[in-house]
Sequence to fold (984 residues):
Amino acid sequence: MTLAAAANETLAHNSNLLVYSAITVYTLAFLAHMVEWVFGSRSKVGRTAAALTAEAKAPAISVTVAQKGGGTAVLERPTVVTKTAAGSRDVPDGPGAHGGTEKGDLYGRIAISLTVLAWALHVGGVLTRALSVQRAPWGNMYEFSTTFAAVAVTFYLVLLVLKKNIRWIGLPLVFTVLLDLGLAVSVLYTASDQLVPALHSYWLWIHVSCAIICGAAFYVGFVATLLYLFRDRHEAKLADPAGEQPGKFATSVLERLPSAASLDKLAYRINATVFPLWTFTIIAGAIWAEAAWGRYWGWDPKEVWSFITWVAYACYLHARATAGWKGRKAAVLGLIAFACYLFNYYGVNIFVTGLHSYAGV
Amino acid sequence: MSTKTGIPRDPETGTPDAPDAGSDLGTAGSQLSTAPKEDIGLPSLGPLGWARWFWRQLTSMRVALLLLFLLSIGAIPGSLIPQTGIDPVKVEQFKAEHDTLGAVYDKLGMFHVYSSVWFSAIYLLLFISLIGCIVPRSWQFVGQLRGRPPAAPRRLTRLPAYTTWRTEAEPEAVLEAAQRMLKKRRFRAHRTGTAVAAEKGYLREVGNLVFHVALIVMLVAFAVGSLWKSEGGKLITEGDGFANSLVQYDDFTSGPFFDTDTMEPFGFTLKRFEATYERTGPQKGTPRVFRAHITYFNGADGKEHKTAIEVNTPLDIAGNKVYLLSHGYSPVVTVKDGRGKVVYHGAVPFLPQDPKNFTSTGVVKVPGAQTKDGKRNQLGFNGLFVPTFGGKNSGSMFSQFPALDFPVLAVNAWHGDLGVDSGLPQNVYQLDTKRMKQYKDAKGNIFKKMLMPKDRLERQAAQHTGIKGGLTKKDVEDDSTMRLPDGQGSITFEGIRSWASFKISHQSGNELALTGAVFALAGLAGSLFIQRRRVWVRAERGADGVTVVEMAGLGRSESPRLPDELGDLAVALVPDAPPAPDAEPADETADVSRETASAQRPQDPTEPTDSADPADPSEGARA
Ligand code: HEM
Fold:
């Protein structure tokens, strides 16, 4: 028994070491991203303005149908022409943080490699923590925060592997992860231990893991939405050469991001995909509450804020279906919705007392 | 980014100001969804006109949006202001601390937000709006299912995805092949003139309708749940039992339709309460196991069964559920009065004042006590109990640990009139000392004593018999008993039992709520992940006598999968319409497209186009 306890303590200790190492490597990745952005600022992009002021609009993207076998003399592969809707801006995506510069790209790649390394350490830290307590690694706010950041980075890396246009999010993501982990190890730290009886349930695995995945994905959606708002304003200014023109710094940064349309679409896809999972998270929580407290819904502060978050995202989805609310207004709703999610996590845990028990806040 | 021009990107919203709403594309894109049209126009005169205007507004998407937003904002205060339904004590405290604010909040129903008039108004309006939205949408959708996909627009080149090629095959043969091919792929396809019109993805609309209907089902389940529910609490000390009837509850609430006359006959006895706590480490004292070992019976003369109730595992019995809520300690005491007669013997539940280490307080009321000479002399004792004694030399007494490591009971005594005969309900955990006097010693100090449990002392004495300095019988007696001045009686701390409090609840509508939730989830998935799209194939003989095949696709939203799918369909059609060998560019657009396509072919890997997305989950999503 004591032997096992000692082993667990060693594991917990190792977990802390791994998390601290991850923080160190994330910091290096952050610096590399900074360098990437600095080098990228030397490029002269200006593609957006060119695209917006171009007279004749050629079809934006052409897509070739997957080839079947080798080419013959016969035209076997019809080309599909796609058209963007009338009235929307036809703007290509920016080249990314490196701005097309070779050096910037190099540092960007270094940053990603470092992020992968830090992620491995980070996940190692989460797993050893789980082993040391022999349960899901999200029994208190410290564990929730570290796991949350690990999932967010996983989500980003998966999108990268899938060759999605997501590399631009590197800097803000690593920054947020550092912030989150910093808070976790300083303010929220709780020594590894067993759960209070109320959390002894397999619903802990289901409900909380879903909440974490949703949060990580919503976060990426949030960043995309926020940058969409900036980029959209930028494009709007460029589209109207007579009006106010964007500043140098804004231009340098925003030109390198994907186009407003791409950011908006990305944010929508993430939010829309995660919404059913969030719905499920709440349902799972209700089932657990029924088992633990005798009612599936009792307007406990945590429940209230999950509900508010859910309604806010439903608002966002509705807004997109409503003429006149698309674009910027819907995006603002998306930001509000994520703010609700965040408040549900930090705000409710810290400022409001309820039935949801996390040890060691 | 989308803009106000709805065509062809969002033909379903049918914005009235869409510039080319009247073009043939308008019809082609019409009814790709059943979303209601926005109508901002002011009503014509007359009450009927106003009523219709009001109804249209209420069921519009804009108002649905507004109500949803209001609902989320309206839910906020309930999480920040104490609620009677959750913690009535806190509400009273709040009112005491904030005079004016408390009164204002009270007026606004802020202490019971989720049953307040204004909150109910929001969600009822929302659900009326929802019903008003669902019903016409369902009809419309049935109409769409009965009808056929709209005919091909005149100029297919204007659609979001387009392809064309020339073939030697006869137009008629191409169209027949196209229809076959589309039907095989589960499109609904039919011929219109020189084209085939096809549509797929109706499940999206079904999903959307199912989702919204499921929301209504969940609301109904919620209503049923609160109208027919009953909920009561019961505190039970080890060895005691409970039978399900109204008088046995400590507190009981029920919905307006719950019939308290027909409560199911069941009951249970708390045999033993098991609690363990972390003994070492930084989380010392954190609870590890709470388990109530009980025996229960179901039915008037049912058999006894043994089981255990834990925090996450309630007892499910006769349509009721018994939940373990909290626990504490009940010191067992014996009180003798001036005549030396035992006037009280039993376990007295003490309430924890410190939820972590269980420093607890309680009172013993002995209405039947008399003095030596037989006069009425009601006795009352105030007690402070600690499971693990701490603060030895600090003058105050507190508990260091929640388990029974070093239990001590400190008591002081009162005599006089307990006030229990007045008929007014009394708090069993408090002594009303208005008409009582506290016992003092000769020097005028409050008469009080710290007692140790007699059963433990006896055990200790038995273990140490013969050892010098061991406990004698008198020591045991002295350490566990407080004798009142002038032989007015005594109180003996016999031992400790645990108590556990239970919530016994009867709730209906749970299954309905769960069913609603499951359907909502399924509907949502269908609505968000399925794309509804239309495809047209046109085959006409060109001027040079060669057949020109044109294919075009239109989705509810600008989806990256649509071009891919159109490409696949084209490839599937090619065997039946092999491209003409001397393919001249069919028209200008095709020419342009081919050029741009080849120009872009070696794609920049850092700039993946949307179409490279292999698994875009929300392709049905609107852009
Ligand atoms: C009880 C609150 C409601 C919630 C939580 C809710 C939630 C949602 C969600 C999440 C969607 C997205 C699914 C999609 O984009 O296909 C949606 C779509 C939709 N909702 Fe609601 N809704 C509510 C009330 C209403 C009401 C009152 C109306 C009618 C006025 C309405 C009309 C619609 C329509 C028409 C769509 C589909 C838009 C489209 O075709 O893309 N909803 N709703």
The longest helix of chain B spans residues 117-146.
